[in-house]
Amino acid sequence: MQPEGLKHPNGYQTFQQFIEQWLRSKLMWGNAYILNKGNGLHVLDPRNVYPMLADDGSVFYQVSADKLAGTGDGDIYPASQILHDRFNCLWHPLVGVSPLFACATSGTMAAHIQENSTNVFANSGKPSGLIMTVDGADKEKVDELGKHLNQTFKGQKAGNLAVTAGELKYIAFSPVNATDAQLIEQLGWTIADIARAFGVPLHKIDQTV
Questions:
Q1: Over the stretch 130-173, which tens digit does the pLDDT of each residue have?
Q2: Domain spans of the chain, in order of start
Q3: Phi, psi of 30 (to 5 degrees)
Q4: Residue 52: CB partners within 8 Å, gap ≥ 6?
Q5: pTM here?
């Protein structure tokens, strides 16, 4: 049940529309400014509101003209009349930034990691094992064997059964080496960082993160 004062916040919005605009403003711009006037509560355009500090530390807000809210261009209101709901105050306690901006670096890093991993696995750029000749085959035979293995077991064909002639010795590599482990850990960090920017508890995404 919404508070009594929010059942009819103003003359042009329902409670649901008022809350939606509030949340959109906060999520898209990192700041939501709600002006409390005699004609109701109004969500102001965050791009046209400027926090100001007086010499004694008092907080004021300068706004642009808004016909729905009944404000004039350059009007100044004290903090007692404006509810400033802000997100991710990275540089100043009165200046919020949107979650998308706050986690842009982590998102870009995760995208590059996934793109690089896709290219590596698509081309099978890292061998899963080493095949050694026991009978001392010459270079021509070794090159021929390598070409055969690359053509038969690369990309989507990886994992097929290999049958070759001659005495060969296969040395398997660890399925997840230290580099891969760090890559997985770094991807987990980017997920956690993005979740923090949006205020989402990690246990709601994945308890193993």
A1: 666 666 666 676 677 777 777 776 666 665 656 666 666 666 65
A2: 4-89, 101-204
A3: 85, -5
A4: 59, 60, 61, 62, 76
A5: 0.54
